[in-house]
Amino acid sequence: MRMKFAGRELDLSRSHVMGIVNVTPDSFSDGGQYNTTELAVQRARQMVADGATFVDVGGESTRPGAAPVSEQEELDRVSPVVEAIARQLDVVVSVDTSSAAVMREGASLGAGLINDVRALQREGAVEAAVETGLPVCLMHMKGAPGTMQERPEYRHVVRDVAAFLMDRVRVCESAGVPADQILLDPGFGFGKSAEHNFQLLAALEQMRMLGYPLLVGMSRKTMLGQVTGREVSERLPASVAAATISALKGVSVIRVHDVRETVDAVRVVEAMQSAAY
Ligand code: 9MG
């Protein structure tokens, strides 16, 4: 299971760690774009030193209640960071966006992956993704970020999420996205109760059987607070536990804030797997 990300080929039968680099006003409290870019690159550099294979650069918060961002604002936030990281660091830069313009710009600046929490459903997104020739991550979200956590309901969460993802796969492949450039993501925390999230976590092997590599993100999320009673700043152990389960269940890319600790956990899983007889 190999996939090429802007010239870098990776074996996705292994688990890789993706570091999160948010470029939103609350992520760096500083006084300007230059400073923000510098700090974002610094953060990415540390993540690479800690073992990240990917860094995911995003300029629009998808947290419930977050203010929407104009396309121009998103471009202004993300472009210099993508360009600087792609030029300076040996890492696959993923661009976390639903905007066709940001996808095109990100690709031209050296991004290697499009990570879209809206699964390329915005106008022009599928066409833009095809044009870039980059792999895409299609994520499931029920509803919209502002309201998605208001009593989400499913007939059967695992089947419903799988059906949505396979429908998006069909649309994307018909439009020209090659099957071997698609990753799928059940979208932990995006329109799901704690029970839905943990049912999806338990069913990751089933999701793998859809035939596409998986990317997941649970780092510091509410679902971990709901079972541990911990605030966001205290969720590292639970995040590492969730990442460990993901690696054991064959997830290819694990999106996290805490790269060093997660890479250690993935290495333990890999050591066990290569020792198994
Ligand atoms: C941007 N973003 C925030 N959470 C995410 C998740 O769980 N998966 C993906 N693919 N992107 C996410």
From TrEMBL:
Cellular component terms (Gene Ontology): cytosol
Top EC class, one word: transferase
Protein name: Dihydropteroate synthase
Recorded metabolic or biological pathway in which this protein acts: Cofactor biosynthesis; tetrahydrofolate biosynthesis; 7,8-dihydrofolate from 2-amino-4-hydroxy-6-hydroxymethyl-7,8-dihydropteridine diphosphate and 4-aminobenzoate: step 1/2
Taxonomic lineage of the native organism: Bacteria, Pseudomonadati, Pseudomonadota, Gammaproteobacteria, Pseudomonadales
GO terms (BP aspect): folic acid biosynthetic process; tetrahydrofolate biosynthetic process
Subunit record text: Homodimer.
Family annotation (InterPro entries): DHP_synth-like (IPR045031), DHP_synth_dom (IPR006390), Dihydropteroate_synth-like_sf (IPR011005), Pterin-binding_dom (IPR000489)
One Pfam family it belongs to: Pterin_bind
Keyword flag Magnesium: yes
Reactions performed catalytically: (7,8-dihydropterin-6-yl)methyl diphosphate + 4-aminobenzoate = 7,8-dihydropteroate + diphosphate
PROSITE patterns, alphabetized: DHPS_1, PTERIN_BINDING
